[in-house]
Amino acid sequence: MMHDLEMESSALETTESVLPPSIDVRIVGFELIADNATAYRIQLTADETTRIVVHRYRDFFELHSTLQLLFTNLPYFPPKTMQIILEQSELRQYRQERLETYLQGLLDRLDTASHPLVLEFLELTTHFPSYKLPTAAPSLVDPKVFEGRIGITAVEYLPDEELLFCALQDYSSFARMGRLWSIVEPDELGALLCFKKNNPTAGSKTDSTSADSTTASSNNDSKSKSRSLFQETFAQVFPIKVCSFAWDSHRKQAFVGFEDGVVTVYTVSQDRPAFVLSDKMVLHKAAVYGLHYNNGFILSCGADNHMCLIDANERKVINGGSLAKRLGSNHLTCCIFHASTKRAFLGSSGRDIYVYSLESTPPQLLTTVTGQAGPISCMDFDGRHLIFGDGTVAAVWLIEGKGRERRSRQAALFRSLTEGDLVRSVRYSSHLRHVVAGYESGSVVTWAPVSGSFSAAIKAHDAAVTVIRFYDSGRTLFTGGADGLLKMFSFNEQYVSQASQLASEWNQRRIDQSANSSSNENSVNWFQDPSFQHPKDPRRSLATDLTGFDAF
Questions:
Q1: What's the predicted TM-score (pTM) here?
Q2: What 8-state DSSP symbol labels residue 187?
Q3: How far apart, in whole angstroms, are the C-alpha atoms of residue 396 and residue 318?
């Protein structure tokens, strides 16, 4: 649970460090080799041991090109061609300085500093055997579990049955303009899919931690399809958008919310992996934007500003009401229900979250989480902490117990690494103890509340990341995007067990190093090249964005 993080944070002070020795990297010069090419001498120092690694600019360029496919917000890299004309000696000197800050930037980030490509490029594990750092960034296991023409709405994976369910909807504003101008056919605005996990034959299993296999699978469609871990067994196409999805794990039934306000119930056939229509309920007069299952209950919210609490067993509404007067011209966007406390959390386009008690009829307003940066796009709740996306911020609020809800307060804010990048999905992983956010740009960022910094920023999709789901004790991550792709990632098992401590110690080391170098007037911010305008390192202002941090 998230509220254990405070005890964990204090425990870190007495726990043996899990970090490898700090590496100081410098480019101490260059030399001319065959064909008048320039090789740069990279000096690596750790624990009073110094080693030299030599690489050409082409090697740096190939490394950066590969990392760009995997990560976002990488340090500035000097281009092949310059906007200004420099003498050959000046160009070499310029590149030497910028390549040095580039390498320092890679080693300053936990995700790139632990990635096999960077370790191999700098030969760190060869020259420094004690440099053992588990890979922080998730590895791409299956780049195309599913590839469709419409975006992913929801994902549900059943490990025991080895079944994967996927809901889709068209995110295009052109879909209703007719066949001539539509991106998808008018009769394919929504879909419900079922997949069965394949049993790989001996010798065909790929190494999910291999950087080479990750890169190859992301660039070769035919190979990725042949290696897919899942096979589609059932598909139901709808002429209307599928706006929301909730899975009743106890009764093995799916609740699907549509654009016309109807919620349809499907059960899973025992004969074959497929959905069987079981019930249909007209709950709203407009799109069903939110469906959430918890301990035998389904909470729905719609664009008509109504909420409905449904008994999942009897499939009937037992509580609910309208928020039309309270919302005015705004509308509900998402919802969460916590069965043990009978509390409903309702996000709105008006930047507010309404917390209701559903213990009695009609529902009673307990408190309102106000003053957010933008419309509430997504939410998650761990029983004490409410995690949500609003605008460019992934926020965490500490929700107090019964009778004290109005004392609920903000615990942390995580601003997007790229200016204007909106949060589209968010999840809290109790195993990683990380807040994971998906963004409009297609990036997925793992934030460590215990340190207040990000641990990994990966390039997951070419469009908005609409779905994030964790399984297998935090080791497996599914992401779905508006690009129609459903992807599967795997976290390093050692990293999962040490993630919180690693993030805390890594961030403290970075702060200490920054403080030691702050007196150097010639120090260069590795996110910004002095010659050109580039985004500044947003993490330098994170400290001012964290309030009530000790709540963790």
A1: 0.84
A2: T
A3: 30
